[in-house]
Amino acid sequence: MKKVTRVTSLLLSAALVAGSMAGCGSSSSGAKTADGKANLNILVYMQDHEKKVYTKLINEFKKTHASEVGNINFQVTTQDEYNTKMTAAMTSKKLPDIFYVGPDSVRSYVDNGYVMPLDDLIAKNKDVKIDDLWPTIIKSYRYDGSKTGQGKLYALPKDLSTFAYAYNKDMFDKAGIAYPDPNKPYTYQEFLKVCQKLTKDTNGDGKTDQWGASFADSFMLNPFIYGNGAHYLTDDYSKVDIVGQKAFKDALQFYCDLTTKYKVTPTVQEDSAVGPYQRWLAGQVGFYGCGTWDVGAFMDKKTLPFNWNLCAWPVGDSGKTTTWLGTVGYAISSKCQSPDIALQLISYLSTNLNGQKEVSGATGEESIQLPNIMSYAKGDFKNAVKAGKVKYPSNVDVMFNYIGSENNYKGIFTETTYTYNSDWFNTFTDGLTDVKSGKKTVDQYITEIQPKMQKDLDKAIALQNKNKKSSSK
Amino acid sequence: MTTAARAAEKQPKAPKKKLGKVALKEERTAYLFILLPCVGFLLFTIYPLLFSVAASATDWTGMNDMVFNGFQNYTQLFQDEKFWKSLANTLIYLIGIPIGMILGLLLAMGMNRKIVGVRVLRTMYYIPVISSLVAVSILWAWVYNYDYGLLNNILRMFFHVQGPAWLSSESWVKVAMIIFMVWGGLGNSIVLYLAGLQNIPRVYYEAAEIDGANAWQKFRHITLALISPVTFYILITSLIGGMQVFVQVQVMVSDGGTNYSAATVVFYEYQQAFESGAMGYSCAIAWILALIILVLTLVNFKLQKHWVNTMDE
């Protein structure tokens, strides 16, 4: 009897210890099943409604490739947690086979040897067609060892996005103003005039209740800066270059004047009480930035109870209305044991027509993203929007113009894409409220902030160089 | 060492020799059982700890192979404006600790009496302690809202003044955080003080009354003196906790505030590690913080003999 107890307790404690260890490392990546089929691990971040669509696509892929594919472990996390999880995976040297890489991180992932170049794989594989994807987006995943935008291809886009401008049609109707012409962006002065007409005290209590626009600095300032032909950094991204740049100063001055001088936006305090997004949803502002990812929600009458459409950001001296683009792509781990299958899978998620119809809302659901396939986007998809068969604002061309940099539109990746981190930019926006609340002038602010931004940038460059050095060993 | 102590030390050894076979086996099995938490401790506490010491002396970005760079991270730290700013903010938040302790003691004394609904009151004050810090932070972010917040609405209704933009003003954000932290820590100190107060024998007060002591003297020389170990405990634990404030800032002022006015050291550490990709540097910040906490705690332990009364004396 005693022996039994002893053996049991031994087994029990052994099991406990083993159990506690098991948490440390999961299955190695790219393993195969007993009968030689490829197992794949994927780690991405997504929202629930995206996950639903992509889970479906993955299951379809599993069915159509049943002879080659064993198990696909599709792990979805939140955007906040993604970096933490990836750092842990890198530290324990157990990367998933497929994971997200953005244009801003292609460089560091490649420098450290975590991802595989795709060109040769694609050349071998007739089914994978990338010629019809938007060129700007594909280009952003190329890297030649020193510069992003050229060289080998390291990822296929999961999506592409742009940050267009939207306006509240009902508010325009009420004020008797003509809708903005998507082919002819507002100049600064025109924009100001419209905003002034829209800014009102609707209930007569002496306080403004409706504003022309409302801005979240960290992502709505740049269309003004870049749209005026200005920039933050020198061409090689090594020096902060804002003092003494007239275009930059003018753009920032106009942007801040909208709040301090013309009062066509909520004050800093009012902004802190109710954010720009909430004010837009509540119908209190005329204009708001609209990302491709916002469209689905904005088309829902429960979210936006008013009519709205897309327009261009106001344009400064450059003459080209400019906004930023975004994308995230699927990369294959350099340690992946079945790169061919992995490529087929990411190509399926990235370029499969049915999948793209589903995510873009062409099947009747809400639109999560624009189609990656250019000919489809500009052909059948656009026609379906015009015919009212897809839930999308009629000025969908605004989005396409930005993504393709067509007509007098320009879509660019922000400069933070090309620096190791965005500390220098955050430092700039962190203190901007001082200008918008009238505590500092634009001149004072940029003179004072430039050296601080440079410090951050220097640190980022140092980190980037360290990344390179250790990988070249 | 006295002979008594030596004897005491020897004593447990003697019977050990007499351990029978069965007992010996039993002992081994026992070790097997305590092995688990030991392994867990080594693996999940000691190992990461040592790992971060090592990492703090490298240029690790979280992605690259670590390359040793000596004290470079530490020297860089001393010229880092944001680090000093976040450290200063953290220290300013500590003002909440004495305020919280005084309030806690007063409330505990109030609740130590037989008043109606005392149990309900005790529960109410303890709720913040067991609530999720994230949820509570979201709630307070609303309380502090400039336009629609509870606080500014009260100020408007009763005092006819417009309250400040609590979370976006550089100075008010600190006041806001301190108030929030005092509120959040109150339940804990009340419960501890209550326990301390109830341990004071009534006879001391009666004796003092006979000697003609007034209320203040009773409070000063009996209550305050006899709960000093509790005060010491609360002080130490809230100092350690206060130096590590993170969630409140992350939730209520997720960008660190205007000009980084709300950021704490741990907040900065987190940003450096996971947003700026400076993992080695972040480890260095963590160790400097650990060092500061260690020094603070040691100083407190040194000072305690001047004001903390223990049973030994």
- Summarize the amount of helix of chain A as a percent range: 40-55%
Helix content of chain B: over 70%
- Percent strand of chain A equals 5-15%
Q: How much is the radius of gyration of chain B in Å? A: 25 Å
Shape verdict of chain B? globular
Work out the largest interface and the residue count of each chain. Answer: A-B, 47 and 39 residues
What's a quick, concise take on this entry?
With 473 residues, chain A is α/β, with parallel strands linked by helices. Chain A is 45% helix and 14% strand. Chain A is built from 21 helices and eleven strands.
What does this 3D model show about the protein?
The complex is a heterodimer of chains A (473) and B (313). Chain A starts with a helix and ends with a helix. In chain A, strands 1, 2, 3, 6, 7, 8, 9, 10 and 11 form a nine-stranded mixed sheet that branches. A two-stranded antiparallel ribbon of chain A has the order 4-5. Chain A is 45% helix and 14% strand. The relative contact order of chain A is 0.15. Chain A has helices spanning 2-22, 48-64, 79-91, 106-111, 119-124, 135-139, 169-175, 188-198, 217-220, 222-227, 246-260, 268-273, 276-281, 295-298, 339-351, 353-359, 374-386, 397-404, 423-430, 433-436, 442-472; strands at 38-45, 69-77, 98-101, 142-143, 152-153, 156-168, 211-213, 285-291, 308-311, 321-332, 409-412. Chain A is an alpha/beta fold and 473 residues long. Chain B is mostly helical and 313 residues long. Helices cover 73% and strands 0% of the residues of chain B. Chain B has 16 helices and no strands. The mean pLDDT of chain B is 89. Chains A and B meet through helix 1, helix 3, helix 4, helix 12 and helix 19 of A and helix 3 of B. Chain B: Residues 86-300 form the ABC transmembrane type-1 domain.
